[in-house]
Specification:
Layout: H1 3-71, E1 75-89, E2 92-109, E3 116-127, E4 157-161, E5 183-193, H2 195-201, E6 206-216, E7 221-224, E8 232-233
Antiparallel strand pairs: 1-2, 2-4, 3-5, 5-6, 6-7, 6-8
């Protein structure tokens, strides 16, 4: 075997090795690209899953807020009654000195969660005018009902006595029926804590419901007043 043949054979082997290395490099480069695209795809899928998770959480939060708003405690005032009773001397029950008004209303929770009453104000407002004043008569007055000892449960109604600020005792010979008096209103407000909202959101909140009823002489009962300044809830 000649020396030239051996040299040529060595060169061929070296060339084949180079070709093999090039092919291996191409395969590795192709694999790296495929792996890179796979990594990008995995990253994109991870981001997409994260966005979907965030969207689901936001939808849950929206649904939770909607539930809290829909089933929050809601107070309303019903069945206001004022009666005229005979006023007597404390030690002489048989001797009448006149009459006075006593009354009560029912506070009802129409919502889905308990209401914790923190205070309230109820007053009787008599006026000769046929309309309510711009400034509500109870502005600047403190509450006269106080905190309830127990929460007002959903659907529960609770009787609240009506405190009379002014002396409404009438002497014999004076008007003895409510409809003979001037325009008469029963009005006020109730404040209450929505503890379920506070527990769910961590935000303390105190809500207020204002009410106003007018005594209709024809119906002989107290009816709603269509005035958002006097009738509203928040």
């Amino acid at each position: 075997m000649s020396e030239t043949f051996i040299q040529r054979f060595g060169i061929l082997i070296a060339a084949l090795n180079v070709i093999v290395l090039i092919i291996q490099s191409l395969i590795l480069w192709r694999q790296s690209r495929i792996m890179g695209k796979a990594a990008q795809t995995s990253e994109f899928q991870a981001k997409l899953m994260s966005m979907q998770t965030d969207a689901i959480e936001k939808q849950k939060e929206i649904a939770r807020q909607a539930h809290l708003a829909a089933y929050r405690p809601r107070l309303s005032v019903r069945n206001i009654v004022i009666k005229r009773v005979t006023k007597t001397w404390p030690t002489m029950r048989e001797m009448a000195i006149g009459t006075e008004d006593v009354g009560q209303l029912y506070l009802v929770n129409n919502g889905g969660y308990p209401a914790y009453i923190t205070d309230g104000l109820v007053m009787v407002y008599n006026t000769a005018k046929s309309c309510l004043p711009m400034e509500r008569p109870y502005e600047g007055k403190n509450g006269n009902i106080g905190r309830f000892s127990a929460p007002l449960l959903p659907g529960q109604a609770f009787p609240v006595p009506i405190p009379f600020y002014e002396d409404l005792i009438t002497l014999p010979g004076q008007p003895q029926t409510i409809d003979e008096r001037p325009h008469r209103y029963v009005m006020g407000w109730f404040e209450y804590q929505d503890l379920r909202f506070e527990q769910e959101t961590g935000t303390p909140i105190v809500r207020r419901t204002a009410f106003c009823r007018y005594f209709d002489p024809q119906k002989q009962r107290f009816v709603h007043v269509n005035d958002e300044d006097y009738e509203h809830e928040n």
